Input
Amino acid sequence: MNLKPDSRTGEIWIDANTVKAPAVKGATWVAHGITGAMQFSDNTDDTIIARHNVPFVMNRSITPIFTVCWSAAGISPGNCEWQLEIDWLEPNDDTTRVTERILTKVAAASAISNGMIMTDFSEIGKPDEDDCCFHIRLKRLAAGALDTIANTVELLGIRLTFAKKEGM
Output
């Protein structure tokens, strides 16, 4: 199934103002446009964390897609390397366990200064039938060689796109 928005898909938006920054290497909330964004600095591997429920209407036989929505100042300032960790949880799962999946993506910033880029993570795995929530950790791997943006990047939000159950 194609997960382009239509009547058979659903999505949730995890806004930048609803995520948390951990005490060590946490991204910072900044004014950005008419709202704000979580700012990831250069050379530090800044991080955000979040958790959300698995939508009841999600068809769990089709892998959903996480999309990181971000921007960077400057005209074509380079590439950003993101690392997404995701853990699907069901009742009685150990909430302190090691993350199930760790994925990385490199994406080029927009040719327009502060232009929004949408970086898809499509290999996040499918939640089990009993999974009720997911935990995520998102890092900018700015200290690595693949991230070439020599400035901050701003996270606007994260979108989860999923196929709906039949009849939903």
User: Anything to note?
Assistant: The longest strand covers residues 79-89.
